[in-house]
């Protein structure tokens, strides 16, 4: 089978939305280019992991999940991740990577697949970076019945929130991802940036992509892991590496900015959980996630 | 390699706790016997799935997760599930099953593994029932630093709560699991049993094992999926099959009954999430889980 590029075609994406040249379209944007894979053969995909989605020199876990999510969307007969779990094994680096997928089961409304991302070590051996198990469906085929009891987070409007560009001092280390995102944090979760963490494990922000691309189910996988760690507001510093991340994608997001609200309620034993909710401009709870992460105490 | 039975030995379990003959010990209980596997060779385990853990004729998903969890505890160098995700593919039946495990990565403090449960169909082909991805560690090695902000659920004491045995009418279909459990539901989440569901997606109960065995990390995998569906309190009836279930086990539970509190906040599009918290007698938040389940609307 000839190689196939796996990303919505640029032309198709632009034509569909009629986006102005200054605003990227789904299918023709930084996010799409940097998550695009080439199918080498069924179940095997090549990609160059971008250096543009790093935070403090680590490749962002949500970006990596979106890469794996795109591979599975190609491999499985259903287009959208409904529930996807990733275990992060070793640290990914910008550069060449291979994604290998396996179809576990295909059904009428749901299919399940598995995917792993590998990179070569200095001896040329494949080292597994991340393994994912996911069930996919068609979000467009779901009935309209919506009885969500949860309510969107209360947040000031974006113009009263603050992004990395507003920060008094730059984020240490590489902050390339902040150039890719439209991120405006709720000032009530920004005490840490001013040396006065609130002590409450919360982080809230308006979220979008810097080039204006609207959200879609795959970019939601990025959105749930793209805010500063709640640990910062608890008063902990340093890296908070993700051990495992599970995302439920419940709805195709409407165009426009998202609101992401993250909560930590169980910091204990050197680990914490981060629960993220993603709300779209139509006040739909489009994604929910939980990750288990390690913290450095003291 | 000779066959090996995988369950804590009966003698060791009883001796360690000094349990009275009328109260089962960890290692010598219904739960241990019904989740015991025989290792046929490295990575391959046989088990007879018990009919004793069914609810309305379906083998309980938490019991199945505990079976897979026990296999991985044997296969991996670390004893306790820290984070475990299961995708339920096809319905399991009581009877023979095979669990196949794979070690994905072993580290100093965490190891990751994968496990699948298979049963034979009528033609004698292996059909995959469940696939699991999990990271294991040693809960006993975690530091004592506990800053849990969450608080235990407010519930009446067990003697003011109600179990299946108190129900005015029996649960339809096979309810074998209710004979295995000590389950006392919070009356404020029991409106459904009296024809008056509250409309709120909540379910709370005191939980234990009927034979008195204390909880351990593996039985927590059962506890998070052993209550009636929150859908009942929302006013929906019928089966609410689990698509995916992720459990974080954060602490070895203290002896004594557990409190399980489950919440649903996003019933939409024919799916809902159930978030479970499990609290032990020392007021520790010992496990958190989220499952994605399908509902029948209307």
From TrEMBL, chains A, B:
Q: Where is each Acyl-CoA thioesterase-like C-terminal domain found?
A: 170-295
Polar residues bias locations = 11-20
The chain positions of domain Acyl-CoA thioesterase-like N-terminal HotDog read 50-136
* Span list, region Disordered: 1-26, 151-170
- InterPro entries in the record, alphabetically? ACOT8-like_C, Acyl-CoA_hotdog, HotDog_dom_sf, Sec_Metab_Biosynth-Assoc, TesB_ACOT8-like_N
Name listed for the protein in its UniProt record: Thioesterase family protein
Provide the taxonomic classification. Bacteria, Bacillati, Actinomycetota, Actinomycetes, Kitasatosporales
């Amino acid at each position: 089978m000839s190689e196939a590029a796996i990303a919505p075609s640029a032309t198709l994406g632009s034509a569909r939305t009629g986006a102005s040249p200054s605003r990227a379209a789904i299918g023709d944007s930084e996010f799409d280019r940097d998550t695009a894979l080439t199918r080498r053969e069924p179940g095997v995909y090549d990609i160059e992991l971008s250096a543009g989605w790093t935070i403090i020199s680590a490749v962002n876990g949500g970006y990596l999940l979106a890469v794996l999510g795109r591979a599975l969307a190609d491999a499985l007969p259903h287009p959208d991740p409904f529930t996807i779990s990733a275990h992060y094994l070793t640290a990914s680096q910008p550069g060449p990577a291979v994604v290998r997928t396996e179809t576990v089961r295909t059904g009428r409304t749901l299919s399940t697949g598995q995917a792993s991302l590998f990179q070569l070590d200095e001896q040329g051996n494949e080292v597994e970076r991340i393994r994912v198990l996911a069930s996919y469906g068609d979000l467009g085929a779901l009935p309209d019945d919506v009885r969500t009891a949860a309510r969107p987070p209360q947040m000031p409007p974006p113009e009263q929130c603050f992004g990395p560009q507003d920060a008094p001092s730059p984020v240490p280390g590489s902050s390339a991802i902040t150039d890719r995102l439209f991120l405006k944090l709720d000032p009530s979760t920004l005490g840490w940036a001013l040396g006065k963490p609130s002590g409450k494990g919360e982080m809230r922000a308006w979220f979008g992509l810097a080039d204006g691309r609207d959200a879609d189910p795959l970019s939601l996988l990025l959105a749930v892991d793209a805010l500063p760690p709640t640990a910062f507001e608890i008063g902990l510093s340093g890296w908070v590496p993700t051990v495992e991340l599970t995302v439920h994608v419940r709805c195709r997001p409407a165009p426009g900015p998202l609101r992401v609200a993250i909560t930590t309620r169980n910091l204990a034993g050197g680990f914490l959980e981060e629960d993220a909710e993603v709300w779209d401009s139509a006040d739909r709870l489009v994604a929910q996630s939980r990750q288990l992460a390690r913290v450095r105490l003291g």
